[in-house]
Amino acid sequence: MDASSPTAISPKEMRRVVAATTIGTAIEWYDYFLYAAVAGLVFNQVMFSPLTGSLASIVSFASVGLSFLFRPLGAFLAGYYGDRYGRRIVLMVTLFSMGGATTLIGLLPTYETVGLWAPIMLIFLRIIQGVSAGGEWGSAVLLAVEHAPNHKRGLYGAGPQIGVPIGLLMSSGVLAIMDRIAPGDAFFQWGWRVPFLLSFVLVVVGYLVRIGVDESPVFEVIEDNKGHQRPNPIGVLFKQHLPLVFVAALVFAGNGAVGYMTAGGYIQSYATNPEGPISFERSDVLNAVTLSAVTWLIFTLFAGWVSDYIGRRRTYLIGFVVQAIGAGILFPLVDTASLGLLYVALIFLTVGLGLTYGAQSAMYAELYPASIRASGVSVSYAIGSILGGAFAPMIAASLVDATGTTVAVTIYLVAASLIGLTAILLLQERKGIPLSPDFETEQSKSPFVFGK
């Protein structure tokens, strides 16, 4: 460990922390992405059945985006309690709330059975998922990064980051399996429910993995020395660091808008729509998304690792260029109706997504002072989620409905990538800055390239 680290962490404990944050985050995002995929494949027909055609898909995707509006609530709560009472306790609460909501979705009646109550209950449970997602990420990444040695923050911080593509991989994979077990109408009748009910088992696994993890060493120093603790971390964050929160949010928004073409279920819906310009088999598209999740995972881990050598900023700059190219060719390739080119488009896209995602844990943690770090990381991520991924599938569906082509969607996605690129250009490289609360004066210096 470097001199700035509060305590030395044994390799065994470090492996336990990485396992807990990675597995727990994967379970959380399995739940979250499962909803998004099923929204485009099933919910538009069984929960919003009075609506017809593209309107049903737009409303169904709106229910995906609605949960993002509640992420800041989860981020505010998690940031406050994470800065005041520790990162670990927040992770246990979010695990149970997300898993409970997901399991209950698998038990919901459809519109045909109970009418309007079906979408109302569905949206309520989706809101709980949103609050949980808003609280999960910040605490998970800080537990990983604040345990890590100075020269490996990017690598260990990539642990909870790869939990996201693992969640997409698991959700797409389970849906693909269920599509084979319950093909055709059986998938709409009961097949879609099984992946939601499996969440109960995953929550138990997540609990057993997380229960034995120690609290962040940075927070232990804060707790031992109450002079490091802020009574109102959220207030300090917005009073002293509001421009940073906004710019950091734009960095993630540039990734999120593009990532939610697959993670948000839009590609799955667009490419399987029998009334659209192309109509692949549902299993073929789910298999392509599953394979692209593997690419996303690999390059997310690579980006975290390489950022420890070339820096977070340079890693992001390369990533956003690659992502912009991937966003530019995505729909032109998908619209060829070639299954092979669908695979190429999704795989290339996820290379850029990984490169703009793997270093995020370390980069965010290094931006904020220790006493308000949980609040800063959580709130920046939640706002970035709203600006980027929240309504990206709905926006894409609306643009295609209004114009009849995917050209406007391509422009939208490339523009999002360029916004992320611009935001990262505004920030200095902060790799290796001490994270201990003993170095808060250094941490509080402006991270902007035009700062002092």
CATH topology: the name is Growth Hormone, Chain: A
Strand content: under 5%
**Rg:** 21 Å
Total of domains = 1
| N-to-C CA distance | 29 Å
Query: Which stretches are low in confidence, meaning pLDDT under 50 for 5 or more residues running?
Result: 1-6
* Major β-sheet annotation: none
What is the tally of beta strands? 0
Number of helices: 21
Overall mean pLDDT score?
Answer: 88
Shape: globular
CATH architecture: Up-down Bundle
- Let me know the CATH homologous superfamily: MFS general substrate transporter like domains
Helix-and-strand structural type: mainly alpha
* Helical content band: over 70%
Characterize the structure shown.
With 452 residues, this protein is an all-alpha fold. It has a single domain, classed as Up-down Bundle (Growth Hormone, Chain: A), CATH 1.20.1250.20. Helix content is 75%, strand content 0%. Helix 3 runs parallel beside helix 6. The longest helix has 36 residues.
Descriptive keywords:
452 residues; Growth Hormone, Chain: A; 75% helix; MFS transporter
Task: Describe how the helices and strands are arranged.
Elements (H helix, E strand, L loop, with lengths): L10 H36 L6 H14 L4 H15 L1 H19 L5 H4 L2 H31 L5 H29 L3 H7 L1 H5 L1 H12 L6 H8 L8 H27 L6 H5 L11 H29 L1 H23 L4 H17 L4 H6 L7 H15 L4 H12 L3 H19 L14 H4 L9
Helix pairs in contact: 1-2, 1-4, 1-6, 1-7, 1-10, 2-19, 3-4, 3-6, 3-18, 4-6, 4-10, 6-7, 6-18, 7-14, 12-18, 12-20, 14-15, 14-16, 15-16, 15-20, 19-20
Entry summary:
Pfam families: MFS_1, Sugar_tr. The chain has helices spanning about 10-45, 55-65, 70-85, 85-105, 110-115, 115-145, 155-180, 185-190, 195, 200-210, 215-225, 235-260, 265-270, 280-310, 310-335, 340-355, 360-365, 375-385, 390-405, 405-425, 440-445.
